Amino acid sequence: MKIAVCVKHVPEGSARMDPGSLRLDRSGEGALNRFDANAVEEALRIKGDGDAEVVVVSMGPERAADSLRKALAMGADRAVLVCDAAVAGSDLVATSRVLAKALEREGADLVLFGQQAGDSDGAMLWSAVAERLRLPVISQAAELTVESAALRVKRQTEFGYDLVEAPLPAVVAVSDAINEPRYPSLKGIMGAKKKPQEVLSLADLGVAADEAGDAGSRTEVLALAAPPARGGSQKIEGDGNAAQAIVDFLAEKRLI
Amino acid sequence: MSVLVFLEHHGDELQKGSLGVLAKAASLGQGDVSAVLAGGGVTALAAEAGSYGAATVYVADDASFEPPLPQPRVDVLAKVIRDGGFDTVLFANSVLAADIASGLAARLDAGLNWDLADIAVESDALVGKRPALQDTVFVDVGWRSTPRLAIFRAGSFDATPTGGGAPKVETVTVDLEPYSAAAKVVGQEHEEASGPSVEDADIVVAGGRGLGAPESFALAENLARALGGAVGATRAVVDAGWYPYSAQIGQTGKMVSPKLYVALGISGAIQHKVGMQNSSVIVAINKDANAPIFEFSDLGVVGDVHEIVPKLTELVNQRKGA
Asked: A96 and B105 in contact by Cβ < 8 A?
């Protein structure tokens, strides 16, 4: 069995937009998106002591290799990085196209995603990738069980849990409540360097440069602005009259 | 512009969020607005969409659409969009809607802007308004091709009836892609909600770790009942098992924007702030005078929730009884 885990290298600390390029500023230090660590952990848990292969796949700048190495240090077997100047600025349509090509090449039985990107807050790429791979997709997995040729997911929605089954191959996005990602051991960190790490260009994947990046995107950022400030606020001490003060405030705002 | 709005339903109720998006679409004044609805036994729900501005409702009514799964709905929407020539397709965010919109974007190679708080027509072009990066920056986003897809964050628009009449109902039949029909719902564990769901409620009373103990959530529940609102919770107390996830508000929970948000013992960490800062009025009670929540509260009360909240609940009940 082969499990592919899609991971993202995200800026550390507070992300900011670059006012020049209107893109996310990726010039600083980065790290493995913490939500993706749950997906890596889940792949390793499914593998257990078995002979499944866990491949981590990313699209990003050269530095994204650091995040892939972290996943290898956790225990993944192999890494694939799609790194090409022409992928910068990819939106959902373009990113899903490139990632799906890289995943097609792997032919994994199970493709895992984390719950969201910690930088852009995007939380839906799995569905676009599954569509391009023509595979079933189940997101918001709070529990995942893989049997021989099928999987069962406890999916968390606004209304509770749905138990969903699908045949393999399939795409699953796990929630960050599904597990507690392990920390890489020293041995894992040392061993990661020796594991296969492949870097692919768009040409390697057979994707034309104008199908990726800004040129392959269908959305655009037009302008940036500062958020509106919140209006006047008042702060009071919670003495014996606090409850009455709150009621008066709510009545004045016509909320009660 | 020809606009299609995805209507989400749960049980036999159309979700307020999608009706809000429908009302917004109608208010853009760009011609007739249509809506699409997919489920089992949902045809009767179509009529209500008329009063929120839908001139036509496309209905895929079949048992195969009963489970709340995205991929069969991608097939429905793709067909309706192609056959009807829609150039703009709008969604209210939800677990289901996000997966549908993303799959549809790949199917149609269509641009998808998500997490929008508003939309406007500027110089004949559609512009999405997106508060991004924990709402530290407001971004204007656009589309380079049609169809344009957009998802709005919860509570962006009030579901205000526009006074439209009965809509035309068009029946949709579609052959599902094999992979769209592959996933099956084999069981459900839904909590019976007591009171309004936290996303639809006009008033939310939320509790955090400052309540001190799981039993203290009764304070939030009693106040919510008195105010006619729903109960929310922070991630910290959900993770600690004090309150169910379905009530979690924040980056990894629900996004809410009620008319009144009462925060009890909540510090106001960014993870929580993101989910509630669009509330019209925020009242916070916290004994830590330096809690970040006070920076974005309309009324901040520095004090002990255990003393203030029972009294507040009593005063609200008295007022309502009067």
From this structure: yes
